[in-house]
C-alpha cells in the first residue's frame, strides 16, 4: 500500500502554547524569525498583542504544523498545505530532516565529542548553584527545580494533554 503520511495541525492549543513555548522551550521561540512580529506578548510589531485584554482577540499565539512522511512526492499532495485564508498573518518555516549515514571514523569522533560535552556540562552544573540546589546532575531525578521551574508531575501531565511527553 501507500506510505502513511502523519500530520499534527494547530498545536499547541491556545491554553498550552504559552506554557509550552515560553517556559519549557524558550530556546525554540528565540530562534524563530521575525520575532518582533509573531511573539504574542513582547512582539513590538504584533498589533494583535497590543489590543486591550477586554477586546475580542483571536488566538495570537504561535502554532506548529508538523508533518511526517517520505521524501518522494507521490503525486497525492502529500507534502503541501492547501491554499487557504487566515484572519491573521502567518510565518511558515520549512524544515527538512533526513538520516545521515556516518562512517566508523566519523561516528567515533562524534561519540568522543558527545562524551566531552556531557562531562563539561556535568562539571558546569555542579559549579552553578542555580541549576540544581543540591549540586546533583541536572539529569538526576533528585533534582526537581531547575532555574525556578518546578519539574514535578503536574507539568508533565499538562504536556501529555497535547499528545506529547516531554
TrEMBL record:
InterPro entries referenced in this protein's UniProt entry, alphabetically: LSDs-like
Single annotated GO MF: histone H3K9 demethylase activity
Keywords linked to the UniProt accession: Metal-binding, Nucleus
GO cellular component, one term: chromatin
Localisation per UniProt entry: Nucleus
GO biological process per UniProt: regulation of transcription by RNA polymerase II
Similarity comment text for this entry: Belongs to the JARID1 histone demethylase family.
Name by which UniProt lists this protein: PsbP-like protein
